[in-house]
Amino acid sequence: MNELKLQRRPIWLAIGCLQIALVIWLSLIPDPVSIPVINVSDKLQHALAYAVLMGWFGQLYQRPMMRLGYAFSFVLMGVVLEFAQGLSGQRAFEVADMFANTFGVLLAWIVLRRGGDQLLAWFERRVMGLAPTPGESPESR
Length: 141
Fold this sequence. Notes:
The chain has 141 residues and is mainly α.
């Protein structure tokens, strides 16, 4: 694997954890947040949220088994959150949302396999001006 070590890995990991917290919070609040200027399908929002999560963590953890673990975890998270919504009495349980979440994870998986797994490394080099450090990331040892 020709992987570059991310210079700001702890920052990227913290941002990823905040993304997970945001998805959980948005899934469990009584009134879903809607942005009037962005009028997209609920299912598209689900797919996009889970694609971002999988894409983000797929860049941080590039070993195939780690990625598979994250993919499984995000799909499971989407299922559990749908059941939690149904049990809350304030939000609706929708199997279609589970499928949209899973679609987002699979879409990100494909993008990662096609070169999208180097976007954070590219950002560090081009935007932040950090020199690449060849070698394995801490998670790939």
